[in-house]
Design goal:
With 47 residues, this protein is mostly helical. Helix content is 49%, strand content 0%. This is Alpha/beta hydrolase.
Length: 47
């Protein structure tokens, strides 16, 4: 949504339906999956 220029590395916006200000508490599985996906995307870019 136009925020790519504000980040030095990979940026991905993910919307979690029904989740408010505390994604790790409200959707722990989805949060963990997003972190792992982001980690693997950036690890491949750094090699």
């Amino acid at each position: 949504m136009g925020k790519d220029g504000l980040f030095a590395d990979h940026y991905e916006r993910v919307l979690l339906p029904g989740v408010g200000h505390f994604p790790p508490r409200e959707a722990p599985q989805a949060t963990a999956q997003g972190i792992l996906r982001l980690g693997s995307a950036t690890a491949g870019a750094r090699r």
